[in-house]
Give the backbone structure.
Amino acid sequence: MEDNKVYRASTFAPVNIAVIKYWGKRDTKLNLPTNSSLSVTLSQDDLRTHTTASCSASFASDTLTLNGQPQDISTPRTQACLRELRSLRKDLESKNSSLSQLSSLQLKIVSENNFPTAAGLASSAAGFAALVRSIANLYALPASPTELSRIARQGSGSACRSLFGGYVGWNHGSAADGSDSIAYEVAPADHWSDMRAVILVASAEKKDVSSTAGMQATVGTSALFKARAETIVPQRMEEMEEAIRKKDFAAFASLTMRDSNSFHATCLDTDPPIFYMNDTSRAAVRVCQAINETAGRTVCAYTFDAGPNAVVYYLAADEAAVAGTFRGILGEKTGWEGSRGEKVEKAGQVPENIAGSVETLQKGISRVILTGVGDGPRQTEEHLC
């Protein structure tokens, strides 16, 4: 091995937004969830983490940089991922003496997000998925996305779902070692390729209560949580998978909105209560309801993760009714640039009875992001270091 040779690999990894939410852990060390979950992987053309993993004998220590800022790489979650990936590479090296001993080299990991970090837009999911996938590529590991999902889960629970494109489930599992708590493909992106989303960014600030702290507080204090984890979510997982298989948007939308409401109800039932949604979030809910009422059918579905930003799902055929309405309200905000955004025509007037919500939305939204269902991680030759 050449002393100063630098080995590197880069990847893009997508954001995923859950429609059946993961909240609560049965094992904090292994990041094992109390309930299964299901998400839609969003297009990397719009939201992604770009990560380059490199290793060299010339590197003095492992380092991690995110958006130009040094990060603490010694955290237990990050170390768990690095340890498992190095172990898999070491196994390969022990079986093939001709392989370079990359497992013994220090790593330099550089990542960039093209969206706000730690603001409820699943940045940690995309981040750890990109970290795991880029190092797996660097080490030339033969592991499948399912196998890698077990590792990524230890970094950030929902990261396991970002190793797949399309519609993705995460089995909560029952094994104490977490071996069966893995992600799986429900359907590829091209199964239901006309799924779209408009993200209303209500805040790009770091949230007051982290997901990790919030979910453990909920597990410990919410009376509603037990019924959600043990009864409600398992039933909804079955119904959501069926809705996706049948491409039944009305069922998909109903389940999505009800599960978002259920998740935030458990947050409010936590002691002390956790408020991830704000006035702007609630205004987005009322506008979605008005859009559906005006259409005379369900054409959009809102969902909120652990943050105030609204993700509104709809089908391409209803872009004028959904995205067009939001453009009529938020047309002065950034995000409508580009060929797709420019094609969205402003819809007619929204009902007068939600004028207050429209005004709140106009004041509280900083930008919009137009996106849709997309594929899983992509290897790239665009290196960050």
